Amino acid sequence: MAAKSRMEKYKIEITELINIGITVKSAWKIINNKISDDEKISYNAFLHFINKNIK
Asked: Is residue 1 part of a domain?
């Protein structure tokens, strides 16, 4: 079984941001500002998560 993504706990918030029309890059910046420096998410990983789980 694959490990859960660090972004899973933000999935609802990410979905809401995307649905109201915020760009992917802006949503990435908002989510990254909420987490600690050692857990920062790369843009490519964030984009992959969105394409696989949200869009």
From this structure: no
